[in-house]
Amino acid sequence: MVAIVIAARNAIRIFVTARPCSQACTIGARSVCAASIACRAACIAPAYLRRSNTLPRLWRLHSLAPHSARRRPASRGGTVPQQQGSGGRSDMNDETAPGPARQFDPAYRLAALANGTLTAACLLWVLDLPRYLGYAFYREQFLAPVLGLSIAAMFLSVRARKGDTRPAPWYDWVMAAVGLGALLWITAQYSRLLIELPFRTVEVVVLGVIVLAFVMEGLRRTTGYSLFVVVVLFLAYALVGHLIPGQFRARPVDLDWLPVYLSFDPSALFGSPITVGATVVVIFIWMGNLLFKAGGGQFFTDIAMAMMGRRRGGPAKVAVVASALFGSISGSAVSNVASTGIITIPMMKRSGYSARDAGAIEAVASTGGQLMPPVMGAAAFLMAEFLELPYRSIMLAALVPAILYYFATFIQVDLVAARETIVPVEDALERPRDVLRQGWHFLVPFVVLLFALFQWNEDAEIAAIYACLSIVVLGMLFSYKGSRLSLKDLARSFSDTGSTMIELFMILGGAGFVIGVLNLTGLGFTLTLVLVQIGAGSLYLLLAISAVVCIVLGMGMPTSGVYILLATLVAPAITKAGADPLAAHMFIFYFGMMSMITPPVALASFAASTISGANAMSTGFQAMRLGWVAYIIPFMFVLSPTLIMKGDPLHIAMNIVTASFGVYIISVAFAGYFVRPLTLGKKALMLVAGMMTIFPDTAIGAGGFIDAAGAVLGILLLGYEYRSVKRTPAPA
User: Fold this and answer.
1) CB count, 10 Å around CB of 9?
2) Would you state the pLDDT for residue 102?
3) Contact 72, 15 (CB under 8 A)
4) Comparing C-alpha atoms, which of 560, 568, 443 is closest to residue 500?
5) Residue 3: pLDDT above 60?
6) Spatial separation of the C-alpha atoms in residues 163 and 179, rounded to whole Å
7) Residue scoring higher pLDDT (596 or 56)
8) Is a pLDDT exceeding 70 seen at residue 24?
9) What is the DSSP letter of 75?
10) Are 45 and 93 in contact (CB under 8 A)?
11) CA-to-CA distance for 383 and 280, rounded, in angstroms?
């Protein structure tokens, strides 16, 4: 506490003594450049920390190394690969400390400090502290130092080669210093540099090249080569696109103008994606970190076990419920698999599920976590920004499709358990009310979040801050099975959040480059025109083509990155063909997510197969079978937006009921079991009945006749099966 008070006192002193730079912001009389504060901090801090020995004490409070330094616990099925996607390096409930060698590595200490500073800076910006203190900044003057801190932390904590556990080499130290220094210089001189951009001075070009190169290297180190190669191809197109004949001929772009435009323009690197990441996503990730440190992850697993463990197919139902709860705050399919699957997959195998089925169930359940409100993945916040809608509108639109997704998964899991006579789990299970009595306070933050969003009409980031405050207060007052939020946990949550944001900032930076190339070359308009021409005026054909494009582009890529690509390339074409804009963006969001379970590159399925010990491709195809509804739902809400809560209440209610019944019938057909095993002919008839029922009447244009006919056929089939079993005499 003493160290925190001393550090806060000196931070205030730095703010108070800050003065405007000679060529700094010209926004107002009291305007001061953010870098002047940073420069004073850089001058004052080292000598003070050495004199007062504050750094060791601060490090003991923030002694969590970045995630790349952690060791993931081994599972029975082997090690879990890190996700090369959204949040692949973020496992928020991982409390493992850095290894002995790295715990005292100065690079990791500085990276942890940079991560904590990054999170604190984002929080203070969201709270609008600079304005309250009388200072005014350009938005880019906030984003540049945040990006600089993430680049510095990345070079200090993530090695150039995957699996390299050695301390940071000298060139990583140099690149960390150069990257941070370049972006702090941009912050300090931003007003002057804006004037010099059209003249492409040597200073501007060099700074642009440094930022472009370092963000690209950060993208490669954190996510692998999938998204890196995609961004490189777009950069190459910007340079040589004017040589391509025909429809895809691009406007010529000068070699020295490309890095300048991409690194400085508000519609490129410092555009909407990275702004949303630094102002909205970071707060929700901090919320998730606080929940896990207070014991929320254990509570969600316990409540799922207590609710479903004693039921038929209990272990699989526990996996579905726990993954839905856990995934709604983790925001990453693969980290969800790694966190919950290490418990649920061995439990499913012990109860009688095959290794393939256990892995597929966990992969499907974990992937749906980013589709489930109230807290969805980073892509949902980006969607709100793209559509200029409040986040609560995205939540409402996602609610019914997410419920249908988990409803289908739950029904199939239950019927497979009946078919395979899988027994419930009875060992030392707690009662749900006992779990709730101990952990009720973990539900309060979600109530606060929803109340702030819908009752107070707050922005998503402010509502999340209210939820975080409730976690801090309740987490310190109440414990759960010996786990209580401490001041040390609170301090570590800042470092954890920054560590998670490193990869996301690199992804969003790369996505900003892609958007910049689309603006420079006109490629976005060309691709939209081509897709509309291919669809030839048929929305059905266009949707089918777009679905394939979404899955292919999403293979091996992070969710947020693929959403931004699809939102700029595919969604405009679907909208121009007559679809509702929100439905079009939900369509690409769903199919981008389905790449997580769709072979040949299915990251969530492959992670689950590693734990279960099953064949990776076999697990992926079984996950596709279990998650069939996610390949149908997007077509449903594009053809009839009633499923995303658009339309009159009567039609919305009717279409939800018919869609739910259709999902049930098709799930029975895929499970191959109702009250007894189904023959091939009955499966086919149920598929037909389900497809007739599942699509809203307004989508087919038959006035509800096809829906009604499908529902009647489905009821007759189910009734026939039920009565046949009743008539069958019991064996003697």
Assistant:
1) 10
2) 55
3) no
4) 560
5) no
6) 23
7) 596
8) no
9) B
10) no
11) 12
DSSP-assigned letter for residue 483: B
Measure the CA–CA gap between 467 and 283, rounded to whole angstroms.
10
8 A C-beta contact, residue 337 and residue 80: yes
Of 342, 360, 405, residue with least CA distance to 604? 360
Question: Residue 677 pairs with which residues in a beta bridge?
Answer: 673
The span from the CA of 75 to the CA of 77, in Å, is: 5
CA distance 502 to 86: 11
pLDDT in tens, 694-722: 876 655 555 568 888 889 999 999 998 88
Longest dimension (CA), the chain: 97
Among 147, 69, 163, 157, smallest CA distance to 110 is for: 157
- pTM of the model as a whole: 0.76
Of the candidates 319, 291, 293, the one whose C-alpha atom is nearest the C-alpha of residue 307 is: 319
Rounded-to-integer distance, Cα 128 and Cα 120, Å: 12
Read off the tokens for 418.
Answer: 């009946």
Backbone phi and psi for residue 307, each to the nearest 5 degrees, phi listed first: -80, -35
Write the CB contacts of 667 (distance below 8 Å, at least 6 apart in sequence): 408, 411, 412, 415, 629
Tokens (6 digits) for 374: 């109230």
d(CA 124, CA 511): 25
Distance (Å, whole) CA 155 – CA 173: 7
Residue 374: asked if its preceding bond is cis (omega within 30°), the reply is: yes
Q: If pLDDT is split at 50, 70 and 90, which confidence band does 667 have?
A: very high
Cross-strand bridge partners of residue 75: 78
Look at residue 39 and give its three-state secondary structure: helix
Q: If we measure between CA atoms, which residue out of 473, 458, 463, 468 comes closest to residue 494?
A: 468
Q: For 245, how many CA atoms within 13 A lie in the half-sphere containing its CB?
A: 0
Rounded Cα–Cα distance for residues 113 and 108 (Å)? 8
What count of residues does the chain have? 732
Q: Residue 26 corresponds to which tokens in the numbers above?
A: 């010209």
Distance in angstroms between the alpha carbons of the first and the last residue of the chain: 75
| Nearest Cα to Cα of residue 669 among 684, 658, 659 | 684
Contacts of residue 391, Cβ cutoff 8 Å, sequence gap at least 6: 280, 380, 381, 384, 453, 459, 460
Let me know the angle formed at the C-alpha of 619 by 614 and 623, rounded to the nearest 5 degrees. Answer: 150
490: left (phi over 0), alpha (psi -120 to 50) or beta: alpha
Tokens 């693929």, residue located: 562
Q: HEC states along 210-257?
A: HHHHHHHHHHHHHHCCHHHHHHHHHHHHHHHHHHCCHHHCCCCCCCCH
What per-residue confidence (pLDDT) applies to 87?
36
- Token code pair at residue 311: 């039921």
Which one, of 416, 388, 378, lies nearest residue 589 by Cα?
Answer: 378
Buried b (16+ CB within 10 A) or exposed e, 51-67: eeebbebbbebbbbbbb
Q: 600 preceded by cis ω (within 30°)?
A: yes
Q: By three-state DSSP, how is residue 78 classified?
A: strand
Sign of CA dihedral 679, 682, 686, 692: positive
Q: What is the pLDDT of residues 190-212, one digit of tens each?
A: 999 999 988 889 999 999 999 99
In this structure, the number of other CB atoms found within 10 A of the CB of residue 245 comes to 6
| Residue from 583, 504, 468, 21 nearest 276 by CA | 504
Residue identified by tokens 């690197």 is 269
DSSP secondary structure letters along 596-626: TTSTTS-HHHHHHHHHHT--HHHHHHHHHHH
Token pair of 357 as six digits: 């089925």
* Cα–Cα distance measured from residue 267 to residue 275, given in angstroms and rounded to the nearest whole number: 11
Which one, of 166, 153, 71, 55, lies nearest residue 112 by Cα?
A: 153
